[in-house]
Amino acid sequence: MTSPQVDSTAVDAAAASGYFAEYGDAARALPPVAIVVAAFNEADVIGQVIEALPATVCGLKTAVIVVSDGSMDKTAGVARTYGAMACDVPVNRGQGAALRLGYQLAREGGASYIVTTDADGQYNPAEMERVLAPVVAGEADFVTGSRKLGSQETKDPVRRLGTWVFAVTISTLTRQHITDSSFGLRAMRAGVTGAVRLEQPQYQSSELLIAVLAHGFRVAEVPATIHKRKVGESKKGHNAVYGLKFAGVVVGTWWRERQRRVPGSGSAEESADGRRPGERSAALPAQAGEPPTRAPDPLAASGSGPAAAPAAGTGSAGGTGVPEASTAETTESASLDPRSAKRK
Ligand SMILES: Nc1nc2c(ncn2[C@@H]2O[C@H](COP(=O)(O)OP(=O)(O)OP(=O)(O)O)[C@@H](O)[C@H]2O)c(=O)[nH]1
Ligand SMILES: [Mg+2]
Question: CATH 3.90.550.10: does it fit domain 7-121?
Answer without folding.
Answer: yes
